[in-house]
Design brief:
By secondary structure, the protein is of the alpha/beta class. The chain has one domain: 2,3-Dihydroxybiphenyl 1,2-Dioxygenase, domain 1, CATH 3.10.180. It is built from 2 helices and 7 strands. It has a 7-stranded mixed β-sheet with strand order 2-3-1-4-7-6-5. β5 and β6 form a beta hairpin. The two termini are about 20 Å apart.
């Protein structure tokens, strides 16, 4: 059954993404790397991607969250992106027509009733 398997990441906007990223690093120990954000690998999570979650700060004027005006976007890991998109479409959920395939997984986007953009990520299985 197509479903969410975990949180893949949390992305937030900032007027000064580098300063905010340094704040999270310096005060909370978030392992931020310039240009990459921070990755948390959960050793006890048996998922194919070893349970990685990402935290990243984007520029306030990023277009990546559009058309949402929200200052955040959550990324959920999914086990069957095509099946979940089909299920959500049948339930009347607003689906973004854009799809993306990367060397680390497949992506699709949907919107909640408040207009927040939600990123869906199906990690590639490791060989």
């Amino acid at each position: 059954m197509a479903r969410i398997t975990g949180i893949g990441g949390l992305f937030i906007k900032s007027r000064d993404p580098q300063a905010l990223s340094r704040w999270y690093r310096d005060h909370l120990g978030v392992p931020y790397k310039d240009g990459e954000g921070a990755s948390f690998c959960w050793d006890d999570d048996p998922k194919v991607d070893e349970g990685m979650s990402v935290f990243s700060v984007f520029s306030q004027d990023t277009k990546y969250f559009q058309p949402s005006n929200s200052s955040f976007m959550i990324n959920f890991r999914v086990d069957d992106i095509d099946g979940l998109i089909a299920k959500l479409a049948s339930e009347g959920v607003q689906i973004d027509p854009k799809r993306e395939d990367a060397d680390y997984g497949r992506f699709a986007w949907v919107y909640d009733p408040d207009g927040n953009k939600i990123e869906l990520w199906q990690p590639l299985k490791k060989l």
